[in-house]
Amino acid sequence: MSQQQLESSVLPKAWKHTIIIPIPKPNKDKTKLTSYIPITLTSVFCKIFERILAHRITHFLTSQKKLNPNQHGFLPFRDNHTAIYKIYSAISEARKNKKFFVAVSLDIKSAYDSVHFDDLILKCLQLGISGKVTKWMHHFLQERSFQIK
Asked: pLDDT of 1-48, one tens digit each?
Protein backbone atom coordinates (compact mmCIF):
# COMPACT_ATOMS: atom_id res chain seq x y z
CA MET A 1 0.00 0.00 0.00
CA SER A 2 2.77 2.45 0.87
CA GLN A 3 4.44 2.22 -2.56
CA GLN A 4 1.08 2.70 -4.29
CA GLN A 5 0.35 5.71 -2.07
CA LEU A 6 3.73 7.22 -2.91
CA GLU A 7 3.33 6.59 -6.64
CA SER A 8 -0.11 8.17 -6.89
CA SER A 9 0.47 11.16 -4.56
CA VAL A 10 -3.30 11.15 -4.03
CA LEU A 11 -4.15 11.36 -0.37
CA PRO A 12 -7.51 10.53 1.16
CA LYS A 13 -9.11 13.63 2.71
CA ALA A 14 -9.20 11.85 6.07
CA TRP A 15 -5.39 11.79 6.05
CA LYS A 16 -5.29 15.56 5.78
CA HIS A 17 -7.80 16.18 8.57
CA THR A 18 -6.70 16.77 12.15
CA ILE A 19 -8.67 16.91 15.36
CA ILE A 20 -7.17 19.29 17.90
CA ILE A 21 -7.87 18.86 21.59
CA PRO A 22 -6.63 21.85 23.59
CA ILE A 23 -5.39 20.85 27.05
CA PRO A 24 -5.12 23.75 29.52
CA LYS A 25 -1.75 24.28 31.16
CA PRO A 26 -1.99 24.28 34.95
CA ASN A 27 -2.18 27.67 36.67
CA LYS A 28 -2.39 29.62 33.40
CA ASP A 29 -4.88 32.21 32.17
CA LYS A 30 -7.44 30.15 30.23
CA THR A 31 -8.42 33.17 28.12
CA LYS A 32 -5.04 33.10 26.31
CA LEU A 33 -4.22 30.67 23.50
CA THR A 34 -0.69 30.24 24.84
CA SER A 35 -2.19 28.70 27.98
CA TYR A 36 -3.10 25.52 26.11
CA ILE A 37 -1.16 22.53 24.82
CA PRO A 38 -2.65 21.32 21.52
CA ILE A 39 -2.99 17.55 21.24
CA THR A 40 -3.53 16.62 17.60
CA LEU A 41 -5.17 13.43 16.43
CA THR A 42 -4.63 12.29 12.85
CA SER A 43 -5.40 9.19 10.81
CA VAL A 44 -3.55 6.08 11.98
CA PHE A 45 -2.84 5.09 8.36
CA CYS A 46 -1.38 8.53 7.73
CA LYS A 47 0.85 8.28 10.80
CA ILE A 48 2.12 4.88 9.67
CA PHE A 49 2.86 6.18 6.17
CA GLU A 50 4.57 9.29 7.59
CA ARG A 51 6.87 7.06 9.67
CA ILE A 52 7.70 4.89 6.67
CA LEU A 53 8.49 7.99 4.62
CA ALA A 54 10.51 9.56 7.46
CA HIS A 55 12.53 6.35 7.76
CA ARG A 56 13.22 6.31 4.00
CA ILE A 57 14.25 9.97 3.99
CA THR A 58 16.48 9.55 7.05
CA HIS A 59 18.13 6.47 5.53
CA PHE A 60 18.74 8.31 2.25
CA LEU A 61 20.17 11.42 3.95
CA THR A 62 22.47 9.45 6.26
CA SER A 63 23.64 6.89 3.68
CA GLN A 64 24.38 9.63 1.15
CA LYS A 65 26.10 11.77 3.83
CA LYS A 66 23.81 14.71 3.09
CA LEU A 67 23.60 15.81 6.74
CA ASN A 68 26.05 17.86 8.73
CA PRO A 69 28.00 15.54 11.06
CA ASN A 70 27.06 17.87 13.92
CA GLN A 71 23.35 17.20 13.39
CA HIS A 72 22.17 15.16 16.36
CA GLY A 73 18.41 15.56 16.70
CA PHE A 74 15.92 13.20 15.08
CA LEU A 75 18.57 10.76 13.86
CA PRO A 76 19.18 7.15 14.90
CA PHE A 77 22.06 6.82 17.38
CA ARG A 78 22.53 10.61 17.46
CA ASP A 79 20.49 12.38 20.09
CA ASN A 80 20.99 14.96 22.82
CA HIS A 81 23.35 12.59 24.68
CA THR A 82 25.73 12.33 21.73
CA ALA A 83 25.56 16.11 21.28
CA ILE A 84 26.41 16.67 24.96
CA TYR A 85 29.29 14.21 24.71
CA LYS A 86 30.66 15.99 21.64
CA ILE A 87 30.47 19.37 23.41
CA TYR A 88 32.06 17.92 26.55
CA SER A 89 34.89 16.43 24.47
CA ALA A 90 35.50 19.76 22.71
CA ILE A 91 35.58 21.63 26.04
CA SER A 92 37.97 19.07 27.52
CA GLU A 93 40.25 19.31 24.48
CA ALA A 94 40.26 23.12 24.68
CA ARG A 95 41.09 23.07 28.41
CA LYS A 96 43.86 20.53 27.86
CA ASN A 97 45.40 22.80 25.20
CA LYS A 98 44.79 25.96 27.28
CA LYS A 99 42.48 27.36 24.63
CA PHE A 100 39.02 28.86 24.71
CA PHE A 101 35.84 27.11 23.73
CA VAL A 102 32.93 29.14 22.38
CA ALA A 103 29.46 27.69 21.90
CA VAL A 104 26.29 29.21 20.51
CA SER A 105 22.92 27.65 21.14
CA LEU A 106 19.70 28.71 19.47
CA ASP A 107 16.17 27.88 20.51
CA ILE A 108 13.86 29.20 17.83
CA LYS A 109 10.40 29.72 19.26
CA SER A 110 7.68 27.92 17.29
CA ALA A 111 10.22 26.75 14.71
CA TYR A 112 7.98 23.97 13.39
CA ASP A 113 5.03 26.34 13.08
CA SER A 114 7.01 28.78 10.95
CA VAL A 115 8.35 26.43 8.25
CA HIS A 116 7.47 27.61 4.74
CA PHE A 117 6.26 24.53 2.88
CA ASP A 118 7.59 25.62 -0.53
CA ASP A 119 11.06 26.17 0.98
CA LEU A 120 10.89 22.73 2.62
CA ILE A 121 10.05 21.06 -0.70
CA LEU A 122 12.80 23.00 -2.49
CA LYS A 123 15.37 21.99 0.15
CA CYS A 124 14.33 18.35 -0.18
CA LEU A 125 14.82 18.50 -3.95
CA GLN A 126 18.22 20.20 -3.49
CA LEU A 127 19.26 17.36 -1.17
CA GLY A 128 18.36 14.84 -3.86
CA ILE A 129 15.17 13.48 -2.31
CA SER A 130 13.12 11.98 -5.12
CA GLY A 131 10.41 13.89 -6.91
CA LYS A 132 7.85 11.23 -5.91
CA VAL A 133 8.52 11.83 -2.23
CA THR A 134 8.50 15.61 -2.53
CA LYS A 135 5.34 15.51 -4.66
CA TRP A 136 3.63 13.42 -1.97
CA MET A 137 4.84 15.83 0.73
CA HIS A 138 3.54 18.79 -1.28
CA HIS A 139 0.08 17.21 -1.58
CA PHE A 140 0.13 16.23 2.09
CA LEU A 141 0.88 19.79 3.21
CA GLN A 142 -1.77 21.45 1.02
CA GLU A 143 -5.48 21.91 1.73
CA ARG A 144 -5.39 20.53 5.25
CA SER A 145 -8.38 20.78 7.55
CA PHE A 146 -8.86 20.65 11.29
CA GLN A 147 -11.48 20.83 13.94
CA ILE A 148 -11.18 21.74 17.60
CA LYS A 149 -12.96 19.60 20.16
From this structure: 567 767 777 788 999 999 999 999 999 999 999 999 999 999 999 999
* CA distance readout (Å), 102 to 38, 75, 81, 87: 36, 25, 19, 10
pTM as predicted: 0.76
Sequence-separated (6 or more) residues with CB below 8 Å from residue 56: 133
The Cα–Cα gap between 95 and 48 comes to: 47
Order of strands across the sheet with 17-24?
A: 36-41, 17-24, 145-148
Q: Apex CA 80: angle with CA 77 and CA 82, to 5°?
A: 55
The helix/strand count (H/E) of the chain reads as 5, 3
* Backbone φ, ψ for residue 18 (5° rounding): -125, 140
